[in-house]
UniProtKB/TrEMBL annotation:
It comes from the Bacteria. The keyword Ion transport does not apply. Transmembrane segments: none annotated. Pfam families: AMP-binding, AMP-binding_C. This is 3-methylmercaptopropionyl-CoA ligase. Residues 451-525 form the AMP-binding enzyme C-terminal domain. Signal peptide: none annotated. InterPro entries: AMP-bd_C, AMP-bd_C_sf, AMP-binding_CS, AMP-dep_synth/lig_dom, ANL_N_sf. One of its GO terms (molecular function) is ligase activity. The gene is alkK. Residues 17-401 form the AMP-dependent synthetase/ligase domain. Keywords: Fatty acid metabolism, Ligase, Lipid metabolism. PANTHER family: ACYL-ACTIVATING ENZYME, BUTANOATE--COA LIGASE AAE1-RELATED. Its EC number is 6.2.1.44.
Length: 544
């Protein structure tokens, strides 16, 4: 017997419609690429969302299922694209501009983007790709006529001119909530990036999950500053979650540095911040330098890589801000866990609370989590046993975009996150290591395997190993260990000069150490754990 409740679909357009109707006067504030601060309201945003939808339909014939790419910072025009594109039933493909140019070319072609909306900063990227991305029929530069750049992009269109004459009324259709809404590519350790195709349903459920008090607890009384980019896992879903509850949004645009953020925080008084540890490190250092205390920031959400205890302490003791440790990944929309307290934790002393906060917390309702051994047997939740962290739930992917034939789930339908973790009796998880040794530099991926492969391409290199080691600014940076071929004279500079021709500059190892031998496992694989034990603090020691 079926239930007799309404079959209303969980769609993205109603999020902004609802915000315009019930929180119409709430502000969205953006630092722009052009320079000035822009401010308007949810009511204003909704009108422009509808103008953009009309423009995409009438000028380019964008329809259900078409992919529209964006290469943009966190800002109001990008926000408009989030709702116009998905609202029409088309698919918003947020492109990470920090990817290698060849990877951007690959993903634009793989996604078959028809239109790309690009911020001023990233126009040079598209200029380099012209002629190599045949599916792209139009490029829209997200600015006004006065700021349109000189560009070699043929027939580049000005965003403000594109939407200017369009009606601010668009009848967003209703359709199956399982329809694809947005697409985000992961930059994995090997091979080409893989696409994660979200649905309207997954994004709306994820928004409910994010707003729950025991997750990020966002409400209509909050002002939220997402420093996490809208080009990397939808800025942790905040552009959807904030309109769901009517929270003010503050977008930092291209200024993600300490002084830029401190100024924005002082001006706009956010109650919630969200970003990776590197960003908070820069902000805290700057606030120290200028001797300023943040006022009114209730929580700073941190994720993407592990938050050190020193950071948790500093936020609390200097700024009265609770550092809320969260964990997630592109494949999870992205939030999986959040380290909020239970009633019994409230009476813990401060030191014990800090200790707890170093964990990634418990799963948001909707995400199921377990750890297994290599054979897939479930391990105990005792806070000691560690194993493969696996998840399932309505906002976890089941297959990658256009790789439907590859089964990525285990026999019981769980997705292996690639992380190694413990889970304690209360369900709080802690990341022990990444199964694949990927290096996280400032919240971005660096593939140790790709770097090793590049290094061994040099004729003087016999074997190479790359590990991520602690760095005072970037959290982690690559360290390269090399065994030279007999008689070879290769030095550090020669190695780096060679690598510079093979990888993007920010991937270059911070140091190169020449060794006589490298440790291996029984099956001949590099034993990186051992290398990390030996060299983990190499750069910290050098920095003094
Ligand atoms: P991405 O898909 O780029 O968001 O990266 C996801 C990966 O980042 C996860 O699988 C983890 O390895 C790592 N990660 C995310 N949050 C945390 C955290 N709080 N602590 C440690 N690692 C994290």
């Amino acid at each position: 017997m079926r239930g007799q409740m309404m079959d209303t679909q969980l769609l993205i357009a109603p999020l902004i419609r609802n915000a315009a109707r019930f929180h119409g006067d709430v502000e969205i504030v953006s630092r722009t690429c052009e320079g000035p601060i822009h401010r308007y309201t949810y009511a204003d945003a909704y009108k422009r969302v509808q103008q953009l939808a009309n423009a995409l339909a009438s000028r380019f014939g964008i329809a259900m299922g078409d992919r529209v790419g964006t290469l943009a910072w966190n800002g109001y025009r990008h926000f408009e694209a989030y709702f116009a594109v998905s609202g029409m039933g088309a698919i918003l493909h947020t492109i990470n501009p920090r990817l290698f140019l060849e990877q951007i070319e690959y993903i634009v072609n793989h996604a078959e983007d028809r239109v790309i909306l690009v911020d001023l900063t990233f126009v040079p990227i598209i200029e380099k790709l012209i002629g190599k991305i045949p599916t792209v029929e139009a490029v829209v530069i997200m600015t006004d006529r006065a700021n349109m750049p000189e560009t070699s992009i043929p027939n580049a269109i000005c965003y403000e001119e594109l939407i200017a004459d369009q009606s601010d009324s668009y009848d967003f259709p209703s359709f199956d909530e399982n329809t694809a809404s947005s697409l985000c590519y992961t930059s994995g350790t090997t091979g080409n990036p893989k696409g994660v195709l979200y649905s309207h349903r997954s994004n709306v459920l994820h928004s409910y999950g994010v707003c729950m008090t025991d997750t990020l607890g966002i409400s209509a009384t909050d002002a939220v500053l997402p420093v996490v980019p809208m080009f990397h896992v939808n800025a942790w879903g905040l552009p959807y979650a904030c309109p769901m509850v009517g929270a003010k949004l503050i977008f930092p645009g291209p200024r993600l540095d300490g002084p830029g953020l401190a100024e924005l925080i002082e001006m706009e008084r956010p109650t919630v911040l969200a970003g990776v540890p590197t960003v908070w490190l820069a902000l805290l250092n700057h606030l120290d330098e200028i001797g300023r205390r943040m006022e009114g920031v209730r929580i700073a959400v941190v994720g993407g890589s592990a938050a050190p205890e020193s950071m948790i302490r500093k936020f609390q003791e200097k700024h009265g801000t609770f550092l809320l440790h969260a964990w997630g990944m592109t494949e999870l929309s992205p939030i999986g866990t959040a380290c909020t307290f239970k009633a019994k934790h409230l009476s813990l002393d401060q030191e014990a609370k800090y200790k707890l906060q170093t964990k990634i917390g418990k799963p948001a309702y909707g995400v199921e989590m377990r750890i297994t051994d290599d054979e897939g047997n479930e391990l105990p939740n005792d806070g000691v046993a560690f194993g493969h962290l696996k998840v399932r739930g309505p906002w976890v992917l089941k297959s990658y975009f256009r790789r439907d034939d590859e089964n990525i789930l285990d026999e019981d339908g769980w997705f292996d996150t690639g992380d190694i973790a413990t889970v304690d009796q209360d369900g709080y998880a802690q990341i022990v290591d990444r199964a694949k040794d990927v290096i996280k530099s400032g919240g971005e991926w660096i593939s140790s395997i790709d770097l090793e492969n590049a290094a061994v391409g040099h004729p003087d290199v016999k074997e190479a190993a790359v590990i991520g080691v602690a760095h005072p600014k970037w959290q982690e940076r690559p360290l390269l260990l090399v065994i030279r071929r007999e008689g070879a004279t290769l030095d550090k500079q020669g190695m780096l000069d060679y690598l510079e021709t093979k990888v993007v500059k920010w991937w270059l190892p911070d140091d190169v150490i020449f060794v006589e031998e490298l440790p291996h496992t029984a099956t001949g694989k590099l034993l990186k754990l051992k290398l990390r034990e030996a060299y983990g603090d190499w750069l910290m020691k050098q920095a003094g």
